[in-house]
Records
---
Amino acid sequence: MSALPISRRTVARSARVLGLASASAALVLGVGGNAFACNINEFSAEAKCDGDNGVITVTDVDPTGVPATVTVYLQNNGADLKKVGEQVVEGSREGVTITFAEDWKPDAEYRIHVKAGNQVDEDIKPNLTTPSTACKKEDTPAPSDSPSATPSDDASTPAEEESSPAPSPSEGESTPPADTSSNAPSPAGESNLAETGADSNTPLIAGIAVALVAIGGGAVFFGLRKRGTR
């Protein structure tokens, strides 16, 4: 039995089918390879607190475990202010986290750059912004046990006013009266007698008194005599 001749049309059709199959296989392999390749979406960053200290963590969930160099920069007005640090991470499906010690300030901005071979060389978008509350709270002075210092001061004011010496007497009260014994005569028998024990006018006054007594007695005597004569 002789072989059937193969026509050119059949050969061309077969080649076309094989070409389509090869292209499909290459496409599937390419898509599969890209699916397992490292990419920037597998990296994430976060600013957290470790007690009173601030830290920045970067997590890599690349299942292929491609070594990636992670660099953290502090930003200021869109420019790198300083380099915080640089570490190498090999990710896994469960995720591998690396930590950068950084005493970050509230609402600060950091740029995280990832370099993984020829597959990744870019920043994590968007930039990392720290929380608005710092890790370590500012120390505030403890309130005093007493309610307030002012009331106690006010309360002590009346006591101080009570214990303060009385106001000095006025000039009219404190100044002793001037000695006027030499300027105005004192009544007889008072200041002069008290000061010297005798008065220069005493004999004269005594003489006048005796004369008045004698005149009075004489008048009485003559009156009584005249009444007897009658």
---
Amino acid sequence: IPLKWKNQRLEFYKFQLKKKMGLYGEFNEWYLYREAKGKGLSPRKPPISPEQLRKALHTIEDNKEEYDVSFKFCSKSETGKRILELLTRQ
């Protein structure tokens, strides 16, 4: 299933590197990173991709003995309500 979420930091990261190197079009963040390093720039490593984040969260949730956490996601408009529900839960 393709993910709909896009990491805005990742998009901005790619935009900045493309602008610095004068590139146009779609490029993988790691390609841009390697190209920038090759041109003598010192870019920071790219932010985590949505796929990496999903895998990390699933690993943490599946390892109940070590972490004992679960992740719940909601829209920004529901965030305050959800926080209050979690804090007032007994």
---
Amino acid sequence: MALSAAKPLIRRHSELGIFLIGLVLVVIFSATSDGNWANLYNIGTILQVTATLGLMSLGVALVIGTGEIDISVGSTFGMGALAYLWLAARVDPSVAVMAAILVGSAIGLINGLLVTRTGTPSLIITLGTLMIFRGIAIALTEGFSFSIPYAARKGWTYVVLGGGDFLNFNTAFYWLIVVLVVLWVMLKAMPFGNRLLAVGGSAESAHSRGVRVDRIKLSAFVLCGMLAAFGGALEAGKLGFADGSMGRLMELQAIASCVLGGCLLAGGRISLIGALMGAFVLSSIQSYLVVMGVQPQWFILILGMIVVLAAYGDRSLRQWALKK
């Protein structure tokens, strides 16, 4: 009876599957790590990684909701980090982070315009811009890294923008909560949410009802770029340095987080909470592999295998829930 009662919940809440998968992994990781994984310090580290990956995943979820995809977010993340670090050494970090967000919005705008004006699939467009902006980042750093002088790390704005902790958690985690609330309001209490999902469900139908399809897609790409760059700035604030490779492969993790969290790649259905749960699961897996001393050359392989198993388990759970 209890299992039967759970089926309607899983059908209504697409993120419930990844929540259950995450819960199982937390139990397994806690039981097999001899207390090295489930401790306050490590949980704080996991949430810090979840925060930056989660910001990127929220932006990707918005684009996926329109039926498009943005795989350039990894390089946007890196460009945001570099812009923030270069400016934070010269101006107040609050100004630097706003400039980084503007860089991200510009990249998102370029992606959106290329997709909506040329009609080229977003996968191809953003694959191209991924390489373009990664190349720019590598060229700007010339193989070296940008860093913030210690003298510039003393202000309260630097601490608030990822450079410090509050109640044992990095401040990036609190920014993630703020962004989640803002996006939730946008999607649930404003016309933007209905229009975004309508575009993803059927662009032609949405257009016939007066929805400006290109404008909605453009807005999603811009928001995605802004969030990726903001995540990069917060990560740079935490580390104090960044190089041209920062954010590499994070675009794949962000997409995986969204898919694991119940976002439909075809568009028309997203879950912000699910995307964050996916980011938490991926961050937890990475942390567990580090704690268990997995050698770097095996890290990506094992991470990929666990992600595939988690995705399969999530899909199987949803299929079971859909059966009468």
---
Amino acid sequence: MTKNKRLVYIALLAAQAVVIGLLERAIPFPFAFAPGAKLGLSNIITCISLYTLSFKDTFIIVAIRLVLATLLGGTISTFLYSASGAIISLLGMFLVKQLGPKRISIIGVSTTGGILHNVGQLLVASFLAKSWNVMLYLPVLSFIGILSGIAVGIAANYLLKNVKTLQVFFLAKENREH
């Protein structure tokens, strides 16, 4: 893939992640029993990026999404929570993906991300509250993280298998890795 194509692809994925994140913010809160929980639909783009680009490029997409989403309607505290969750989630997803497609699917990678995102956010909340009691909320958020991770993984898997443009990048990355 040429450098220009790669940059355009990164920009498109980052823009899609921002738009999906903003749209998700506009959706009424689906988990009334778990304040702060959300579906994490922009992680569809993170999963696609992990499977079609390098870790560095995926990190760039996540960073762009975090900064732009904050500038378009976030606060410093939402940035702290989102950034901690996104970075821990991305690292975990990348490491789990390294197990290989015979051991874990994109759905498993996404589910790992869903759980770790909540861990990252609760670590920041614990730090800010100066209390580890916040971590008692982890089982509830983990359950939601598992459900949303499965949904996001299914969507990302569908897109990778059925969108021709993504298939080109996916197959190109597979060929580079073998």
